[in-house]
Amino acid sequence: MSGAEVIIVGGGVTGLSAGWWLARSGVKVTVLDKYIVGWEASGRNGGGASHYASPLFDEEQRMWPQMDELLGYPTEHQKERIIVAMTERQWEQYRFVAERHTRLNHPVALLDTKQVLDMVPLASEKAYGGVHYKFGGHANPHRTVQAYAWALQDLGGTIIQHSPVTGFETAGGKATAVKTATATYGCDAVVVAAGPQIPQLMAHLGVDIPLAAARAEMIITEPAPMMPLTGVDGHKLYGRQTMRGNLAYGGGPHEWLDTEGDGPAARPSTPLARNLAKRLAELFPKAAHLNVIRSWAGVIENSPDGRPIIDRLTSPDNVVVASMSSVGFGLSPASGHAIRDLVIEGKCSFADIDILKLARFDGLEADWREKRGWMPLS
Amino acid sequence: MELNYTGTDLCAVNGTRSAPEMRYDVIVVGAGPSGIEAAIDAVKAGSSVLLVDENPVSGGLMGNDVPLYFGGRMTAATQQSERMLEAVFMSMPALESAMDAGVELQLGTTAWGVYRNGPGVASLPEQVVGLADSERSWLVGFERIVLATGARDLAIAFPGWNQPGVMGAAALQMLLTRYDAFSGRRMLVLGSHDLALETALLAHERGVEVAGLVEVRAAPQGAAELVAKVVAAGIAIHCGHVIASAKGGIDGVESATLATGETITCDTICVAIGLIPSIELVDAMHGPRALEPMRGGYVPAGEANVSAVGDCAGLADTGFDHIAYRMEWMQALSNVSADDTIICQCEEVTRADLIGVQPPHYLPRPPAMCARSLETLRQDGPANPDQIKRLTRAGMGVCQGRRCRDQVAMLLALESGVPFGTIPLATHRAPVRPLPLKILAEWDEPAAMDAAWDVWFGMPPAWVPHEDIGTRHEDAHRQMLYTGMYE
What pLDDT is recorded for position A4? Predict the structure, then answer.
């Protein structure tokens, strides 16, 4: 497919990674984004990269340590993670997950309270214990999305911002062009990786993609003294200490929203910041005096089973759709590879990703959102 | 895994939030003259009224230039919270009238966020303002909110500005008039519009030696009577000049050098170029706002139940274009700045790093990174301060961008060759004041919040390792992580 033109709809982390992988294979890539690259969930998440549940996990783990060098730009990737249990129940749950890792040959170690305190200087003496994942890690979402975008440009790809896609042209069972308000881009293949806007976009192609969007929130503190391992979370929080030292954490209840074709009208944070602050102060009591300096929210889409959809359609058969269902950032080095394979070869070369196919939702009840309680509040 | 869906998402926010502790018909944020007047008017009209003011803020916050640009020129008196509280009360006799009229007054209480349902959120039981004092935070409901948050100092970088002794005019006025806690003795003032002239006269009256004013334009900019008073006081106004650098030692500024080479001994350089209406709360609540160059910058556009009074609503319009004036200063100080002049003090972002969109120095800068710049970024679209912030960290520090957000926007306009008004306003986010985790925390949260709390969405299938799908392990995950749910 060298020399072919692929249009990627959505300049989030998944679309950008796909574009980068395609450009590495000599494909001419154009990424269209409604606003600025990485402006939605891709740039608003916890930066975690330890998605052991995914068939893309091995590739995620293989790729992340190489990404800075391959992209040519810093991503702030840091290895490993420690998950700290603050209640007996959490300790039971985290040990259960640790046992699964051991069975699956993912290297983990259980930490007692003293070991937690040695390895996590900000941690609480009330911690029940912790699990050290000697895999996975985290990166800086802001820096990573821009790194993909720049690396893609360095390989000859094009990024067109401030250009919401309004529709497609099709002929002979293929998508032949992607339209924006001001231009029409002819193409040999299309990747739709537009997060919560995927259902509206795919409706133009007569394809139903079951997704529901929700808002989630995070807080960040001023810098704390650097911990030896910065990928520390637990206590039902996710997050990281940034390389600057800030504690950036999220978790807790989400709010379902109506998806809109042109994206979220706003991404308001709420007083949930107080509940996040409570848990973070409990997890890191030695940091409880640190100032929270921002909170923010992002809007994320989920599929009916909470797992990603990565699939090449049967009609039009040159369209690949990718919704990462709220685990997109960490998996991005691998999801981009899988999308590249689907576009060029029709099949993922490095993993069996059939469980991510759209067909698993064939026959999905029309009221699947209502049944799950995933309806927006009016 | 067969999940039994019940029509309710047990991990959604629905119904988990706490109700506000108190409710008032009207909340007024800011107990300056306009806020007090609004509070008294409202209480006379029969409303229940809460008037809050963050002052006195803690010495720690003042040290971080929150909410004003204090520049480290506070005396130790600012560490004595009881004295400070008394000073606030004594400086505003109208506070007593407000209390007599029935206004509930809470000093030392900051309003750090306003929350209401609207685009992207429908889960709030009612609209609330988040308050905090030195002990805790809480929520208060309201029918109408009046923002009387005043205006904050505009800072612009020049070589040596990032040391104690460089400060803002509003901060200086507060230290002089309210707290009697200014530690400087000899001061140079940048600017010659009314703000600078009034500040110089006030300092002069209070026994601070004013070494002069520096004005980038050819003539003094303020009202003729103020200019006459300054001249009569024997204070020089150096027109058509610009400061080139500040030099200092361990206690901060010791002298200023003008671009002409003239050196002026001083321990304080007061940046009195402009004030910015304090619209943090309005912007963080996604309220409408508009750029009003004659009124000092972005001002609230007004809504039925959100109003702004005093400087927060915009400086008095005297026909003076504050934005044009600031941009001239920005250009002049930009000309005397060097690559290594710090723009963002919290994150130590230099001018070269900002214009080069380079990451902080603890990160590697491989060749591809070094080749990137604002110029290459602009080929993808117009400059956006939030994007620059993400890449350079400028504005990400503990002062919450108070010292650099305005000058970053001005610099982007200059470097892009576009009008200031085309640069988007960098986002303000709650908490709009730095708040310690232990203060912000809702320690007594509703049980429903904890019951709904999951690390991420609470979807059992999302956590099952793909190897376990379709095996006996699959339901074991659900049972362990989501006990009793979906059964």
Answer: 78
